[in-house]
Amino acid sequence: MSNTSVSIESVENLLPKELLELLQPFQVDQIKSMISSFLVMNFSVHEYVFEYCPKCGVHHPVLIKAGKANSGKQMYRCKHCNKRFVVDHGQLTYYSHQSEQKWNQLIDDTVAGHSLKTSADHISVCEETAFRMRHKLLYFLEQMSFPLRISETN
Ligand SMILES: [Zn+2]
Fold this sequence. Notes:
Blueprint: H1 11-14, H2 17-22, H3 25-47, E1 63-68, E2 74-78, E3 84-86, H4 100-112, H5 116-122, H6 127-143
Helix pairs in contact: 3-4, 4-5, 4-6, 5-6
The chain binds zinc ion (ZN).
């Protein structure tokens, strides 16, 4: 197995050229959109749970299990603000200071190869915030391996 370090300008560049040639442009768009959705989902599960308290925003909150909500979902209590909240893995907005809409825009911009400044303008955050968001995205992409394998052509 080759050890390739991934430099990402776009998600499309991560896909094997041989595969892209077999797909219609709208199908490539669908794949990119799907990957974006997966990224948002995985960010919310792996990166944002417990990074910030969704109630008071304290960084790396100490959380204790605090029963189940009526919906049956696990609830946690933040020891900092003493408030309870549901951990809902599907909702990025619970764990990030930035809205899901902004994350989606940032991912789209990154995929499209737009500059940080353009991204920052699009989602109305400062460049430093856009940088941190993109860093998290790229870091995640570096950890990601595609299950898809194309046979060697030579
Ligand atoms: Zn709190």
